[in-house]
Amino acid sequence: MGVKRLYIETLGCAMNVRDSEHIVAELTRKEGYETTDTLEEADLILINTCSVREKPVHKLFSEIGAFNKRRKPGAKIGVCGCTASHLGEEIIKKAPFVDFVLGARNVSKITEVLHRPGAVEVDIDHDESRYAFGDFRANPYKAYVNISIGCDKQCTFCIVPHTRGEEISIPAELIIREAKKAAESGAKEIFLLGQNVNNYGRRFSGDHPRVTFTDLLKMVSEIDAVERIRFTSPHPLHMDDDFLREFATNPKICKSMHMPLQSGSTRILKAMKRGYTKEWFLERAQKLREMAPGVTIGTDIIVAFPGETEEDFEDTMEVLERVRFEQVFSFKYSPRPLTPAKDYEGQVPDEVGSARLSRLQARHNEILDELKAQRLGEVHDVYFEELRPGGTVAGRSDNNLAISVKGSEELLGKTVKVRIVEPGRTAHRGEVVA
Ligand code: 5AD
Ligand code: SF4
User: Fold this and answer.
1) Measured from the CA of 336, which atom of ligand 1 is nearest?
2) Quick check: helix, strand or coil at residue 148?
3) Which of 142, 146, 228 is nearest to 186 (CA)?
4) Which residue's alpha carbon is at the smallest distance from atom 18 of ligand 1?
5) Which residue CA neighbors atom 3 of ligand 2 most closely?
6) At which of 204, 221, 253 does a domain end?
7) Between helices 278-291 and 241-249, what is the axis angle to 10°?
8) Which residue from 154, 282, 315, 399 has the fewest beta carbons nearer than 10 Å?
9) Ligand 1 in contact with 334 (CB < 6 A)?
10) Other CB atoms within 10 Å distance of the CB of residue 377
11) Is residue 128 part of a domain?
């Protein structure tokens, strides 16, 4: 009997990327699968979905329809992830050729649903916080490590609490064990993952000593083989002084912070139930820049949330101007099922939302061009993690700039000093400093 082949497509966030790695690990270890990039030769086709905005959810059915036409006879199709959680059996009703549906909080059941035609596993109370997964990693030089599952926030625009359930922290000793194992096998960069990482330690399943995210950062940094620590996503509300101090002073923690703003208007932030004000956000960002010189700050922004006036939008533009984010992911508000905001009054017309989004992105591109000019000649420690076509190797600086140089695989997994010779908006070209 030949090997069985798995084709897996992953949409959405880093959490999904890690969930896909867990799925591959389980299928390899227990079922003898190998991954393939060719859909036509796969025995199992999986799509790990995202439901945070409406568009990709719409596209799901045409996409799996196309998979169905291209699959080889007898190949199975499974829908996993957040859209699986929120649509559940509706997926099989609409697309009866789908063999099973596996929710974002049920990853560990992959080898079970595989053998149960028509299975739908989308229980959001399922506890995966103590589950030990295999150690398949798509990139051997960096390791994603989950620190919690689910999310306890109730942001009124967000579907995630309904797809990933309530927040449970993974016991610190499991996290440390996984980080140590990964680092010792060559993944010197550890990427801690959670929906709201700096809320870590509020609830475990079972009895555990209280460990805060700041404590956890210290513990991971004490592992000798770990050279770099990144994490996503923190919440601005939980950025207390202790956390900022640890971030700024611990040399292993990479100096790039994601601070999801969502809106710059205190009134809209309240309607979103974000728990902070425009002033709090500005003060934290300023403090961060003072404490950690050279830090880069990224953010997520939603425009045209229900009730957003021109004045509210100007507040967002003002925060953009003052913080000068190095990276912005911006979205037009998308009403999501099961969320309070979809029923709010004052839904903003689509063309108004599009105009605001374009204005925000245009201004941010100008800011990026201004930053670009300053980057020329900067020297950074770059950790190389990926070979690119044309004899190029790509990596990241400590402050998360994407930098590539001419070179080959001997640079992979190494940290090398690089001078930026051709800065760009989102990626830079550099030369190794001899
Ligand atoms: N509409 C638009 N953007 C959204 N996000 C989350 N929910 C929505 C929604 N309903 C964005 C937020 C979040 C990012 C992952 O996706 O900015 O931080
Ligand atoms: Fe990730 Fe949220 Fe998308 Fe789920 S809905 S994949 S948690 S971004």
Assistant:
1) 10
2) strand
3) 142
4) 300
5) 50
6) 253
7) 30
8) 154
9) yes
10) 9
11) no
Q: How far is the CA of 104 from the centre of ligand 2 (A)?
A: 9
- Shared domain for 262 and 367, answered yes or no, is yes
Q: Which atom of ligand 2 is nearest to the CA of 11?
A: 6
Provide the domain limits for residue 158.
139-253
Indicate the top mutation candidate among 52, 197, 333 to test ligand 1's pocket, ranked by most ligand atoms within 8 A of CB.
52
Which residue in 311, 256, 318 sits closest to 281, CA to CA?
Answer: 318
Which residue has its alpha carbon closest to ligand 1 atom 16?
Answer: 52
Closest CA to 232 of 153, 131, 290, 145: 145
Q: How far is CA 371 from CA 296, 364, 368, 420, in A?
A: 11, 10, 5, 13
Contact (CB, 8 A) for 149 and 186: no
Per the structure, the count of domains in the chain is 4
Asked whether residue 105 falls in the same domain as residue 22, the answer is yes
Q: Is the CB of 193 under 6 A from ligand 2?
A: no
Q: Are residues 249 and 259 in the same domain?
A: no
Q: Is residue 280 part of a domain?
A: yes
The verdict on the CB of residue 160 being under 6 Å from ligand 2 is yes
CATH number at residue 390: 2.40.50.140
**How far is ligand 1, taken at its centre, from the CA of residue 53, in Å?**
7
Least distant ligand from the CA of 329: 1
> Is the minimum distance from the CB of 63 to ligand 1 under 6 angstroms?
no
The one-digit pLDDT tens for each residue of the chain (434 residues) are: 578 999 999 999 999 999 999 999 999 999 999 999 999 999 999 999 999 999 888 899 999 999 999 999 999 999 999 999 999 999 999 999 999 999 999 999 999 999 999 999 999 999 999 998 888 999 999 999 999 999 999 999 999 999 999 999 999 999 999 999 999 999 999 999 999 999 999 999 988 888 999 999 999 999 999 999 999 999 999 999 999 999 999 999 999 999 999 999 999 999 999 999 999 999 999 999 999 999 999 999 999 999 999 999 999 999 999 999 999 999 999 999 999 999 999 999 999 999 999 999 999 999 999 999 999 999 999 999 999 999 999 999 999 999 999 999 999 999 999 999 999 999 999 999 97
